[in-house]
From TrEMBL, chains A, B:
Keyword Transferase recorded: yes
Pathway: Amino-acid biosynthesis; L-arginine biosynthesis; L-ornithine and N-acetyl-L-glutamate from L-glutamate and N(2)-acetyl-L-ornithine (cyclic): step 1/1; Amino-acid biosynthesis; L-arginine biosynthesis; N(2)-acetyl-L-ornithine from L-glutamate: step 1/4
Species: Alloscardovia venturai
The protein, known as: Arginine biosynthesis bifunctional protein ArgJ
Active-site residues, Swiss-Prot/TrEMBL: T184 (nucleophile)
EC number(s) per entry: 2.3.1.35, 2.3.1.1
MF GO annotations: L-glutamate N-acetyltransferase activity, acting on acetyl-L-ornithine as donor
Gene3D superfamilies per UniProt: ArgJ beta chain, C-terminal domain, L-amino peptidase D-ALA esterase/amidase
């Protein structure tokens, strides 16, 4: 059901001919039919933010939007004024096509694909036209939209959650270039709850900080990351703030987890949990350092519980960032304490790595109990294949 | 000639049986016969510094040393008090074996190999005994020593430079886990110049900052990085400070360049030069960000001049670290301006990447002209093979 699980939304995903992959759907449209048109967004902090990010980041400041046009097959990043004009033209065209009182200012735009090329604008327009005719709120439409935003993803990623009298659904794409502070990911979450723009924005910001900001496929931050939350108010239910924030967080976490599960070429999902830190920031810095180790990621691909590559990464975190004594640190891999007080613990031969998920639990033993978890993927031959062959 | 190119040194490299690779030489000994015994060292900043690093870092503070024992086949890192005792025992054993007025305090120790296992100390002792008998100052001895310190290196790496009346030689090992702030590398540079410990230390620190600190094979900092400079004074020539510093810098740069040329599984050496920055630190931060992009490194492996992956990495550098306007940035790959003022420039099809070396030149166009260069390797199928299969 994806983005149409919640009431008040229609969607479509169509083939417009932007993507060079034969038959690949490449334009998705999501329309909020109200009564509310609340919208919130979180975007990449990359300084080469793509034209659609520059545009949508500005538009979302109003707290309102009625439609989102998303294309795969081209990022429209590093395309200068001409690229920005393409976004304006797309929003204008979508508003004209959808009519129903929708103006260009009500339309958000997101793109994903290769950096540095203008979009084939006629194909984008064609996609919008086709999608506008197919708008629906059934599961087929929801699935087509989730497919249309995919690039190197191998499967659509969606979520549906039921709250206390209201619903929330969503879709995400993202597989490579996934790193702290978002990722090459485009995510649309919809809800029929009655919420204010402020609550929507706060809930989304908090949720992304603990979900999309804590996954790292390959340490590469994208120019196009976009996470949108649209609220229609169609349920008529005004949820408790805490409950709403919790549901947004759950939607983001479940979608983020699916990105890791579909990481480019990956064979293992790696959970890196750091406990016993003085602060959450310290725990997070340690988890990120370990998650970014190519050597560790290769070892996990080889089913090798190489804890030396865990601690050598941990040891690169400056003391000022995370206080700990290396002689206190323990590392458990899949339940086996392979490193105890900075020294060899139980034999690594005891560790089994047959499952896709690998749990690495690090305890800094500082005497405090702050914690953070980051998810990453292993680094495989297929990752290199995919990224060496990806069309220039 | 390696470490015996300069007068006053003897060396040997032997098979002791520490390395699990059949027939692989695994113990090297370098002895400074004087008349001076000046020594300087630069070590990893990893907080899980290996036992030999902890020991040698302490010893080098005296500014003097007469011998270095190096083993491959085991890092003696994360081995606790027992590992530290192994270093003390090794130094003691080497002093006893070499005699000639050499005490344990005169002996430095360096190790490389797998983290988290104690060394087979009897094999280390046997290696020291064998090497002590084979000490010589001919090119065969120099080559054997350079071979004995290798791990995943595919070839020995040495340098010989002649100064104004004095000589300098050196050897280095390092292939993976090579990252900013040194690398899994062990380097010994020798000279017969007459220098003070202060000059030696200053020259070595400055040289490593511009050489070994500016290469990055895989973003992984080692627990065992050790760079040593030994001066025998045998030439009787006291060089000009500036000339001496220049030669040490040249030796380090040439050895660092060889590490990149032998990066694990690599098929391209990638030079990332950032110009037009406000400060050298800003240029360096930009170069490091680009050098650490797995996506770019995969693209280069695929002979794809994917400048989108250059700018998306550049865009992750915070404004506070490096001021620049994305709309001013140019990127040249092998002489073709593929990105001009943040937009597509000349067609990327014009770029040829047949040569091993790939030059990426980024100009931030801030109006200032500070610059920095970082070297890295591409990310290949062989890199993943090597690091997934490396014995746990």
């Amino acid at each position: 059901m994806s983005v149409v699980f919640a009431d008040g939304f229609v969607t479509a995903g169509v083939r417009a001919g932007i993507s060079s992959v034969e038959g690949k759907k490449d334009v998705a449209l999501v329309v909020n039919q109200g009564p509310l048109d609340v919208a919130a967004g979180v975007f990449t902090s990359n300084r080469f933010a793509a034209a659609p990010v520059q545009y949508s980041r500005e538009r979302i400041k109003s707290g309102h939007a009625k439609a989102v046009v998303i294309n795969s097959g081209g990022a429209n990043a590093c395309t200068g004024d001409a690229g920005y004009q393409q976004v304006l033209d797309t929003a204008e065209h979508a508003a004209d096509t959808l009519s129903q009182g929708i103006t260009a200012d009500d339309v958000l735009v997101a793109s994903t694909g290769l950096i540095g090329e203008l979009l084939p604008l006629d194909a984008v327009f064609r996609g919008v036209d086709l999608a506008a005719k197919e708008l629906a709120n059934d599961s087929s439409a929801g699935c087509c939209a989730a497919e249309a935003i995919m690039t190197t993803d191998t499967k659509p990623k969606t979520v549906e959650i039921t709250g206390n009298g209201f619903k929330m659904g969503g879709m995400v794409k993202g597989s490579g270039m996934i790193a702290p502070q978002l990722a090459t990911m485009i995510c649309v979450i919809t809800t029929d709850a009655v919420v204010t723009p402020q609550l929507a924005q706060n809930a989304l910001r908090k949720a992304t900080e603990k979900s999309f900001d804590r996954i790292d496929v390959d340490g590469c931050m994208s120019t196009n990351d976009t996470v949108l939350l649209l609220a229609s108010g169609a349920s008529g239910v005004e949820p408790d703030n805490a409950e709403f924030e919790k549901l947004v967080a759950e939607a983001c976490t479940r979608l983020a987890r699916q990105i890791i599960g579909d990481g480019e070429g990956s064979s293992h999902d790696i959970k890196i949990e750091v406990n016993g830190a003085e602060t959450e920031d310290a725990a997070l810095a340690c988890a990120r350092a370990v998650a970014s180790s190519n050597l560790l990621k290769c070892a996990i691909y080889g089913n090798d519980p190489n804890w030396g590559r865990v601690v050598s990464s941990l040891g690169t975190v400056p003391s000022a960032v995370a206080a700990f004594d290396p002689r206190d640190v323990t590392v458990d891999i899949n339940g086996i304490r392979v490193c105890d007080e900075g020294k060899p613990g139980q034999p690594r031969e005891l560790v089994t790595m047959d499952e896709r998920e690998v749990d690495i639990i690090i305890d800094l033993h500082t005497g405090m109990n702050e914690t953070a978890t980051v998810w990453t993927d292993d680094l495989t031959l297929d990752y290199v294949h995919i990224n060496a062959d990806y069309e220039s």
